């Protein structure tokens, strides 16, 4: 009997082996919760942010597109009006209403107080934009007029016109500088962007700006540039409008990242086979 008992007795038996199934169940649940990846929650959270953020940016670009299209429509409606005499008094509300409206001025340039803003490019060439005080004949008011662009080499050779002239233009506002634009330095004669209030105070004019419209053929530009005559621009107003492409890009990215998130969460966990590798010695 002792030999028979010794044949079937357990070698190195440990009661801890009875708890192995409980350990396997606990580890299995842990691996299921993170899909076999200890960083699963962080990765899933990061992937979840991508479709949310891109969807927000896509909706924002759609709203920007609607705003830009409304602005373009309003500007085109203003440009279609017949030219009017510029009112002698411009309140802020009236100034906003007249922006981009064609107006007519009669008077003469005060070229001894002109301002050159730049550098600005025109058809691949570097130069300056000439802003000159203009004395109105009907009201004796002085306002600012953007005469046009001159080449850099003609900076000190700008052709002046002291005669009484009639010009057609558009009421415009100043420019908003970006973070890289240096501040204007009136004392040194350096102007980097159009600040109507600052420029009007410097030349002693009203804070009103009219953009003179070129009435000559564009084919004459080269000859006028060589003569130092400022090149006015056309009455067309162009706006940077790529919001539709931006909206499509962000919304497409939201869809793609949503699919990636779904596939990441629903993927099969890579779990080790604990039952196969578990060993109990008898």
Structural class: alpha+beta
What general outline do the C-alpha atoms trace?
elongated
* Low-confidence runs of at least 5 consecutive residues: 7-20
Strand order of the largest sheet: 2-4-5-7-6
Rg over CA atoms: 37 Å
DSSP strand tally: 7
Instruction: Profile the largest sheet.
Output: 5 strands, mixed, barrel
Q: How many helices does DSSP assign? A: 8
Helix proportion of residues, in percent?
Answer: 25-40%
- Count of discrete domains: 2
Let me know the average pLDDT: 81
Instruction: Give the termini separation.
Output: 19 Å
Question: In words, what does this structure look like?
Answer:
This protein is of the alpha+beta class and 282 residues long. It has two domains: 39-80 and 244-267; 83-227. 39% of the residues lie in helices and 18% in strands. The protein has helices at residues 2-8, 20-33, 40-79, 92-98, 196-203, 221-227, 243-266, 274-277, and strands at 84-85, 102-109, 115-122, 125-136, 142-151, 165-172, 209-212. A five-stranded mixed beta barrel has the order 2-4-5-7-6. The protein is elongated and about 85 Å long. The chain starts with a helix and ends in a 5-residue tail after the last helix. 17% of the residues are buried.
């Amino acid at each position: 009997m002792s030999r028979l008992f010794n044949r079937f007795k357990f070698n190195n038996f440990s009661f801890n082996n009875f708890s192995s199934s409980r350990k396997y169940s606990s580890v299995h649940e842990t691996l299921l919760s993170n899909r076999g990846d200890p960083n699963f929650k962080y990765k899933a959270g990061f992937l979840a942010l991508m479709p949310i953020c891109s969807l927000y940016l896509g909706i924002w670009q759609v709203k920007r597109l609607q705003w830009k299209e409304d602005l373009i429509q309003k500007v085109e409606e203003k440009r279609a009006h017949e030219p009017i005499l510029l009112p002698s008094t411009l309140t802020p509300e009236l100034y906003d209403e007249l922006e981009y409206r064609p107006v007519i001025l009669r008077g003469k340039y005060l070229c001894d107080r002109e301002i050159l803003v730049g550098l600005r490019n025109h058809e691949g060439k570097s130069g300056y934009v000439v802003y000159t005080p203009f004395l109105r004949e009907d009201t004796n008011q002085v306002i600012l007029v953007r005469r046009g662009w001159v080449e850099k080499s003609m900076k000190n050779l700008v052709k002046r016109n002291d005669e009484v002239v009639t010009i057609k233009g558009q009421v415009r506002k100043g420019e908003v500088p970006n973070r890289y634009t240096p501040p204007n330095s009136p004392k040194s004669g350096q102007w980097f962007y159009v600040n109507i209030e600052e420029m009007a105070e410097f030349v002693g004019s009203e804070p009103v700006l009219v953009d003179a419209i070129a009435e000559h053929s564009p084919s004459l530009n080269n000859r006028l540039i060589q003569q130092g005559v400022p090149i006015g621009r056309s009455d067309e107003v162009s706006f940077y409008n790529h919001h539709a492409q931006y909206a499509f890009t962000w919304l497409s990215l939201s869809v793609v990242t949503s699919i990636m998130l779904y596939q990441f969460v629903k993927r099969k966990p890579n779990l080790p086979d604990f039952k196969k590798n578990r060993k109990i010695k008898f």
